[in-house]
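Example 3.
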Amino acid sequence: MTDAQTKRRTRGGGGAARRAERTAVSIETARYIERNIPNFEILTPEALEIIEANAETVLAEIGVNFVNNPAALERWREAGADIEGERVRIPRGLARKLCETAPSRFTQHARNPARNVEIGGKTLVCAPVYGPPFVRDAEGGRRYATMEDFRKFVKLGYMSKWLHHSGGTVCEPTDIPVNKRHLDMLMAHMTLSDKPFMGSVTDPSRAQDSVEMCEILFGKEFVQQNTVMTSLINVNSPLTFDDVMMGALEVYARNNQACIVSPFIVGGAMAPVSVAGTLTQVLAEVLAGIAYSQLVRPGAPVIFGAFVTSIDMNSGAPTFGTPEATQILSGAGQLARRMGLPFRSGGGLCASKLPDAQAAYETANTLNAALLGGVNFMLHACGWLEGGLVSSFEKFVMDADQLGVLHKLAEGVPVDENAQAMGAIAEVGPGGHYLGCAHTQENFKAAFWRSDVFDYKPFETWDEEGARDTQALASRRVAHQLATYQEPVLDPAIRGALEAYVAEKKASMPDAFM
Amino acid sequence: MTDAQTKRRTRGGGGAARRAERTAVSIETARYIERNIPNFEILTPEALEIIEANAETVLAEIGVNFVNNPAALERWREAGADIEGERVRIPRGLARKLCETAPSRFTQHARNPARNVEIGGKTLVCAPVYGPPFVRDAEGGRRYATMEDFRKFVKLGYMSKWLHHSGGTVCEPTDIPVNKRHLDMLMAHMTLSDKPFMGSVTDPSRAQDSVEMCEILFGKEFVQQNTVMTSLINVNSPLTFDDVMMGALEVYARNNQACIVSPFIVGGAMAPVSVAGTLTQVLAEVLAGIAYSQLVRPGAPVIFGAFVTSIDMNSGAPTFGTPEATQILSGAGQLARRMGLPFRSGGGLCASKLPDAQAAYETANTLNAALLGGVNFMLHACGWLEGGLVSSFEKFVMDADQLGVLHKLAEGVPVDENAQAMGAIAEVGPGGHYLGCAHTQENFKAAFWRSDVFDYKPFETWDEEGARDTQALASRRVAHQLATYQEPVLDPAIRGALEAYVAEKKASMPDAFM
């Protein structure tokens, strides 16, 4: 595969491409995380069994709705479900049985094979914020997002060492017609980054466009044989699968592309106001959604998703980084692992309107829960603000920096002879100090993680330099990253074919803004 | 005991005290945390055994120094250690054997028995920041701490629902002579709060004063039979026990009062630049220190402490909330539990100069690590800023609020019939919503934790109200807490006796500022 890709990448590449390849700056990206630490498991086996039994009861007795989707109802009928109108009641055990053909782990390929990611098992892949209609930065405040903002976020993602994935709708480019913006978004991910990315899900035809653009980028045969997109299919909770999302899922599953089947729940509104009840509903929805993907194409890669926020019962506002959100994340991870499926949950989620302390407490609570809860695909790992209404430039680089903490923590604790450092303890002895000893000299460079954003200077120096807070430090980093960004090399023939595809598609339909 | 205390509290109390008792506002404080969740264990049993064997080697072959303390050397000689100058080499197994008389769990009594805390096993007790010479607030900036600042922090601690303990040196009152400030600090904890507190450790005579003031507050017999103070004994790492700290420990152990024996380590400077090496040294130091406490008085209550920061190898500055700090905290907790001892580690530690996003990321990383790492006594749980140089008023209430997250998370996940919510799922069905259903109405009040500091309002409302960041919201809360503070009732006779003790002690010596 690597050979094929290499060939593909250089096919038709002239002297310009080769020159570009020679002069391009290589942006270092850490390999996806492979955990060498245990998962934190909050639920007992008995609790998990209760929830699993209840989820089967929900599917068998209450059922789920597949809306405006006669083909789906027919697939379910053939599989043995009981159909009544749009309601699908699934006999106990059937959904779980159907899910068994889904792979426990898969590779998502990037156009640069060094950026391929493994999703499942002990891995953790970090992808940026998804979906906000607004952006914010310190200079310009909060405003509707544009395609230019979108491109900047893709560039920042490409420049982020600890971010493995370019994501999808890093913000909604509201200046581009709704029915055409997916083309520009995909073009940005394909040309401004060489990390893996997500496809469009807002209409089945846009999912099809995503597949076709990937066929240009990767080659048609390669796409059919390999997963090159992981896309986000939200369940319309409670217990409802609408035709738009299912239509996109059908396109992706048929083409061997990965879907995250993700209940989207504001707790107390779209699910019961209890952790166990919410987990029951999450599991029922995921079982039905993933089973359906396997009815479309057995073996299609999928991810067990769970996006669940708590709610402020005073105001009805969604809340993040709360203990209940952590409990649900942790429990959902356990349920996913018992199904042998990759797991997706939140990353740097927060409710705050600013990249301030509230945002950071909420975000850090979620990031820690996600690492320890066994998340394999972390969407919204950086840049999310204001409950997902805003993509923040400063928070993007702040969070992306914190992902480094997760990488180092996941490595676990070496206890080889060098790590034991018995020679150093003997050399230094009581009352001595370690800064100058041989062991320290040999090991200090890799010993401690350090932030590339935070300030570690003495108070006096920091004060003289303007007493900058984290937002100000992050603003400076955003500007530096964008100023030093260099586009990764892409075969000009492929670029030309992509541009022609986008132009042709755009010309084929009138603009739509709804 | 409760009867005796009640009697003591009303003894000699006249009509004024009774009137005060009737009119006093009752400040709600949560009970200390009793975990109903598993601990996160980062080290394998094999790794733990290697570290334990190495720590015995350190004690037997390298040894520890007990400085300026002939009585300590004599105690060690009698116990079977090898003494050479001030160096104490402890045969394999001896220190661990001596530690066996230390209790695995103890009660620290407060003058209000409802505020007593249990330290050990699955509990977590939260105490505020300890030691900074500076304070900071949004209005006044950074400045030297005064006794007035100290009193404000004690009041804020008393008002904090999720804080179980009044702490010790919540800031250094630099306007009071060094040799007298412990008297004013104890007086503040004893009169402005009714939560448990810590004693002075800066000189053995000041530890003795702490015991004598407690004898006035609790009664002499009560103090000898019960633990009423938990005090912080730092080890002068590496492997050195100085006469000041050991002198204080001797006073407390003789009087049945608890000590935290706590290696104080900036990684790479006072310990090897590796997690396993640092844990080896931590364990050796704790074994020696706690064994010594048991030589002074077998059965004296103690806590296995570990204060370890990582370091920025570029500048030498200590760093907080880093992955290595989490690894060491987690590993030290495992070592403590294998000794059957209560465990202390950091709380809201951070390097940031401001209560901004950096501070909150670093703090939240540490708070999460401490909850999951099995910490029993969390010092610096709130208010710590700038690597411990500054006590921040705003961060005090921000962190104290976040401690609520830990309380709820520690409760675990109920799976009783009400929590399963199967009736609600059936009632609402596919496509419905839960806000109005009976289960939600019955459960919503206790369902989700909410912050008392953060902003959950819609953007427009928040913007109209001044677009306040977390620091501004916290400033308002500090002012509100101090304005509504009411002193807890104290028997005037006891207050008078304490005042007389302090006045007499102060008059007995000249001021010293060094």
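Chain B touches chain A through 127 residues (CB under 8 Å). The radius of gyration of chain B is 24 Å.
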